[in-house]
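seq as requested:
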Amino acid sequence: MNPPSVWRRTRGLIKKRFAAPAPDLRLLKAVKKNNELLYDIRWELKEQRKYLEAFRAFASTAMFAEIREFTEARQYGFEETMRRVARDRLSLARFGDGELKIMLRPQYNLRFQPWSAGLAGELRAVLGLDGYDPDRLLVAFPYTFRDAHWTSVWLDIWPEVKPLLNPDVHYGAAHVSRPIYFSHLGQRGVQLWRDVWDGQNVRIVTGEGSRFHLEPALFGNAKSVDFMYSAAKDAYADLPRLMEELEAADPDKLYLLALGPCGTLLAAWLSQRGRWAIDMGHISESWANVFKGAAWPESLDVVKS
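struct tokens:
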């Protein structure tokens, strides 16, 4: 066999060995059909979402009109809430969706606070200022979001919340320590908080090992800061011990509370005893979310890892 023939044969073998297999037309048709089906499903889901959004908006229109009527007449905005807390040394007890649901939905549990009848009853009393002095305590009501989450919350609980609200008092804005507050007010919002504890001796009450951190951009102008700890989970079970410790603590300090629903209760309880107490919740994490692009507060672990 001459060399050219060997080369041709070798080249043929190489091409046969490494050539791409012929396409399976049946497989290609099946893939194309599946892609078309997935496209149709995606389109249908988008259309259904549009209908659901329209239905949600229609179903909630009357309800949000009621909530707006209440908030416009009986709720301070972000800045006025902060000014009243700082100027009049009002204690602040905040209600978010967690507090409202624990108050109204038996067996509703947060990650860090299980439901109990006692906790639900005490939250009801605070929301209506039953036994509390509005000249000492500002109860804060949520910002009226109209997103999917809050629309679902309000559709579920507003009929039960409405009769519990005290028609003779003004409520504060509960979201003053949440990302939306810092998003709306920026550095102005930071300064309004710094005005509260400027030159104050501060005691922070939080869960032991909790993720709360003392953000210098917020707390750098406090005269002094120390800590008192409760349980990071189920602080309500620890409340009798904590109240006894707080009863004996310095009455002239400003108490800042980061303790979930128990922070709401403690702010009200301390106000009854002439103390200045503010339920500030996730304030440092909310600041970091807006100014540093950090994670949403609720996406973080309850305790530091």
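DSSP finds twelve helices and seven strands in the chain.
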